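I'll show a sample.
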Amino acid sequence: MLELINVIVAAGVGFAAGAVWYMVLAEPWMVAAGINRDADGKPEGGQSPAIFATTFVMQLIVAGMMRHIFGAAGIVTLGAGLVSGAGIGLFLISPWVAINNLYGMRPWRLTLIDGGYATLACALMGVVLTLF
């Protein structure tokens, strides 16, 4: 039961990190992603609650798999969780984002923003997953 709570909290931390990351980098991210905006500068059509719900489910999937990997690898300390989480974000997720953006002919800046978020969020989730 504790592992499930641990995964849910880690997913919440990853979700919250994304909220802060993309609020701070909203303007450069929207430009790099080619998001069309309305007269108020907000994304056209607004943002559906389904986007946020789906994002949280995806965070749960990532946190759950990280928990599994950490268990199999014997990662139990905060430092190891931080470094391992950052490694997952930087060396597994970010390159995949880069490949997708290369073929989508998206700006390199988008890869840096999204890959940076993946690295930060996974590092924070790694810490949470080693707390309890």
Remarks:
- The mean pLDDT is 96.
- The longest helix spans residues 78-103.
